[in-house]
Amino acid sequence: MFWKKKNDEAMKEDQGASPKTIEDLLLQLKKSPDFSHYQHLSDTFQCWISFFSSLVNVESIHRDILPFLYKGNIRSLSDIQEQIPIEKIERTNDLKLIQSKLMEGCLIIQEKESSPKSLIVPTVLREGRQVQQPEIETSIIGPKEAFVESLDTNISLLRKRIPIPQFTVEQSRVGKVSNTRVCLTYIKGIANEENVNTVRQRLQDLEVDHLFDASTLSLNISDNNGSPFPQFIDTERPDRTAAALFEGKIALLIDGSPNSLILPTNVVEYFLASDDYYTSWYFATAYRLLRLFAVAFSVFSSAIYVAILTYHYQLIPIDLLGSLITSRSVVTFSPMAEAIVLELMIELLREAGARLPTKVGQTIGIVGGIVIGTASVQAGFTSNVLLILVAMSALAAFTTPNYRMASAIRLLRFPIIVAAQFLGLLGVALCFAFFVSHLLKLTSLGRPFIEPIYPLRISDLRDSFIRFPFTMQSERPMFLRPNDTLRYNKERVKQKAGKREPDIDE
Amino acid sequence: MRKLLNIAAVPLLFLGGCMQDNIIDDILMVEAEGYDYIGNDQVIGTITTPNYAQGGVSGSGGGGGPATASMMTSASAITYDGRSLVEKLTPEGQKAIRAGKLRVQLFNEALLRHGLKKLIHFRNQDPDVGRDLFLVMVDGNSKDLLQSTYQTAIPVSRYIYDLIFQNQQQNYPRSNLSTVLYNYYGYNTDPFMPIIKKEQDHIVLTGIALLKRDQYVGRLNGQQEAFLLKTLIENFNYGFYDYTFKPNQHVVLENVNSSRHYDVKNGNSAEPNIYATVTLKGYVRQGNPLLATQDYYSEIQTGIQSEIKRALEKMVVGFQKMDVDPIGIGDIARSYTRHFDERSWPERYPRAHFHAKVKVMLVETGISNVR
């Protein structure tokens, strides 16, 4: 085939562009000002040292590596390997390895400039952002650490929480040009091997030139790219990630991304906040139900307003008619038009708030909420009732803890409003049925997406709409098909608890 | 296949816009219809629509232009019996007239004597109108009643609706389109409806109209009678009964909780026996000072019991004379009799013996020795 041929040629060209010898490589790199390449000369030994000063912590090189090279007992590369108090020094001839290690921030020591025989000395990297409080998924109770852009820090955050050898981190590289490090992490013995293999395969088969963030990766490896719903959760909370790993899920960490990707997931998990696990189950359940109500409200409220005011005047309680009609009577547009106008206004506010610098963003909220809202009612653009509904539904949409799910829900409103205008409540029902059937078909890593509901899995419902007490959640989620299904032995818990016999003063 | 579906969705999208809509501020919602029979199968039909507050939204600062909520409030025209008034009155409508929010339908006595048949059939087939609307008889002229002004500022339709609704919570038996249809189409039952009357600038609920099939045959006057009918038709909670135990000395039984039980013996004989047990439980709230006698309890209790018993039996005898069955005794007899002979029931109904047994329990709250 024509396109295949072209592809082959492109690949060949690709190989042609990469340097063939170490001299070529050095020559190429020397053009960049942050590349240090010089000859080290001492009485007993001479060598060539090269590194990127922009990547490594130069101070530590001067302190920990270079002084050792001046010692009298160093005569060869192997001496260096033995003498420098740094672990994991590699000896290699492999040009590719040298190149990639150089780019990662290692120090390369050669005996001769032209020979690929060299030592790769790992160095202390320049520090990125410190571990900070989570900003997107804030919580009131619970750990206050968030992932940062450095992959190694992120792994350490996880490993601190999962101090067992079974915690497996597999590193691979994604991105033809960027060569981004992606770590596949899971707990061996809990995670399902099939899931792990699927993720591994999807990562290997991925054809992209660069990769910056977990969300990009999620879009690239998701089961259905055309779906408005996210199929994998990206989270900035290490505690949430660790909890997912303990359940038997898989987490992907991407170098340069302050988010980890949890997979597979089901739809309910997008409405669970980490706070739910740090409070008593009554409150957790109450807030979960509140969030679910919020979702339904934000999706349907303005659409039902449009449907009822346009077609089903019979359904309005007679006492409400008066206020609805008087507030509608000064409005110029049809219910659908005013709903769209107001929804767009809210979306504009949100978008403007997201794009503007924080300090200006605060004013936008006040200007938008109070000034534009009341002014649009007074100008006869929208009715008072709708203003309340739309503001409430916008608010409700933001209760969804997962940002990508929240945006999906916000956008879902528009097709439903349009359907409401076309066919009234029937249209709302049809549109809802359409989305439900889409959800039915959706999978996450091949696992059904709306799993505890359909197919019905009672044991998984225990941590969905209602969070049962932890004592009743002895099993890991069934849809993950974990290797080890039990979190703990329920019988033993019962035995230990024993029978309660109240003492006389109780 | 997928492509075909997509193509099919496009006209669906565009044709959806061709649907007739009923945007609430662009229609006139009829809330009351009145029918006055003028003979020769012709009626004067009257509709009223509520007139919503004038002026723009409060605090609009004059924005939004003049309010469009202020609309016509009533119209009437001569039409033939059993036709929808909505279409007839369309030429008078400032905006499209819709009947979906109908609350009350009024008939004068002449129309009820003429028969409701066509109207009932028509209402039964109209999906737009809910079943909780009240069918009401008017003493006098329904057009007059609908087009007059009253002390209250709310629309007359809601005035009537609230009036009847509130009374049906208490002494009047429940009667709306749903129950009228049930009793009309049901076996051996006859519908009934409340009667209202205009008295100067008031509307008063005066009694209950009894219908044989769809035709007016008689009436019960006052809430005492309504109370009696209600005890036989439904179990209820908030009735009240006024008992005159001596001339000019009254006791009012309040918050009456009433329940009934039926028994039928010899349901297939020529003279069936129907036994009704009515249990009433209520507070004595309004007592005469003479109540302070030591033996008020048994005196009042037995007094009320025998009075209600006599009244009930008299009422049912009256029904039998009129050959009308608003209680649904035929239906009760059928449900208590194995192999019930339905065909001969209409002949046997006037000869049936109705026995009432009344138990009254006085809850001793609110009674104290006044000395």
Automatic annotation (TrEMBL), chain A:
<feature type="transmembrane region" description="Helical">
    <location>
        <begin position="416"/>
        <end position="440"/>
    </location>
</feature>
<protein>
    <submittedName>
        <fullName>Spore germination protein</fullName>
    </submittedName>
</protein>
<feature type="transmembrane region" description="Helical">
    <location>
        <begin position="385"/>
        <end position="404"/>
    </location>
</feature>
<comment type="similarity">
    <text>Belongs to the GerABKA family.</text>
</comment>
<dbReference type="GO" id="GO:0016020">
    <property type="term" value="C:membrane"/>
</dbReference>
<keyword id="KW-0472">Membrane</keyword>
<keyword id="KW-1133">Transmembrane helix</keyword>
<dbReference type="InterPro" id="IPR050768">
    <property type="entry name" value="UPF0353/GerABKA_families"/>
</dbReference>
<dbReference type="GO" id="GO:0009847">
    <property type="term" value="P:spore germination"/>
</dbReference>
<dbReference type="Pfam" id="PF03323">
    <property type="entry name" value="GerA"/>
</dbReference>
<feature type="transmembrane region" description="Helical">
    <location>
        <begin position="289"/>
        <end position="313"/>
    </location>
</feature>
<dbReference type="InterPro" id="IPR004995">
    <property type="entry name" value="Spore_Ger"/>
</dbReference>
<keyword id="KW-0812">Transmembrane</keyword>
